[in-house]
Amino acid sequence: MELGEVLAALADPLRRQVIAALARAPAGTERTCASFGLPVSKASLTHHFRVLRFAGLIRQVDRGNSRAAVLRGDDIEARFPGLLSLVANDPAKP
Amino acid sequence: MELGEVLAALADPLRRQVIAALARAPAGTERTCASFGLPVSKASLTHHFRVLRFAGLIRQVDRGNSRAAVLRGDDIEARFPGLLSLVANDPAKP
DNA sequence: GTCAAGGTAAGACTTGAATCTTACCTTTGG
DNA sequence: CCAAAGGTAAGATTCAAGTCTTACCTTGAC
């Protein structure tokens, strides 16, 4: 879990939006990739969630029919204390 | 001073190195662009320091002969508490 | 069994970021 | 005055990131 990779992952507004949504939800919340309503194609969704997973920010649990994203809140907080709340409390920029 | 811009600025390893060096130095430390010994051309230096300035992370004070970079530590800490220490305490990767 | 929904994979496309070279400006120091 | 040092500006290049389309796979529901 490297700082550079994490910052690069969070630099994208769509990915930051995903992390912010998960960070504001109760810990352990599972959400499908499609449930965020991001304005991109399915293939782009796959790309963004892969970047988040590689950076260590989320896990993806197989739910048979779909694949849910879960924030790795504790791991992130342990390594980069305060980072999550910065993202969570940042006003969205529509 | 927007989170997205700040994260994008800090995603680059060279720029992160500059911010880390300034953050570890005493507050208000002034350093010329060239003093960091980054392995790029002068023109690339100008580019990187402009990005840092646009993101609001540094000021550049004119010293006649040269132009020194100064970390905007208080402003950063006020808006993004904890962010600076994440960058400052991150182990360099080379 | 069939079909729709959710994801993934591979490939192409496009745009932006980082880099360099060259040329120029400004200031300090002989 | 002249030269060197530190930066800036403009333009070209190169490469990665984000995006799409198409095709395919898997699971659950009918």
Here the CATH topology of chain A equals: Arc Repressor Mutant, subunit A
Q: What structural class do you assign from the helix and strand content of chain A?
A: alpha+beta
Strand content of chain A: 15-25%
Strand order of the largest sheet of chain A: 1-3-2
Structure, described:
The structure is a homodimer of 94-residue chains. The first copy, chain A, contains 5 helices and 3 strands. Chain A has a 3-stranded antiparallel β-sheet with strand order 1-3-2. With 94 residues, chain A is of the alpha+beta class. The mean pLDDT of chain A is 95. The A-B interface holds A 2-4, 7-8, 10-11, 13, 16, 80-83, 86-87, 90, 93 and B 2-4, 7-8, 10-11, 13, 16, 80-83, 86-87, 90, 93. Chain A binds a DNA duplex (30 and 30 nucleotides) through helix 3.
Characterize this entry briefly:
Two copies of one chain form a homodimer. With 94 residues, the first copy, chain A, is an alpha+beta fold.
Topology (elements, then pairings):
2 copies of one chain form a homodimer.
Chain A: H1 3-11, H2 13-24, E1 30-32, H3 42-54, E2 58-63, E3 66-71, H4 73-79, H5 83-88
Antiparallel strand pairs in A: 1-3, 2-3
Chain A binds a DNA duplex (30 and 30 nucleotides) through residues 12, 14, 32-34, 40-51, 63-67.
Structure keywords:
homodimer, alpha+beta, Arc Repressor Mutant, subunit A, three-stranded antiparallel β-sheet, 5 helices, 3 strands, 50% helix, 16% strand, DNA-binding
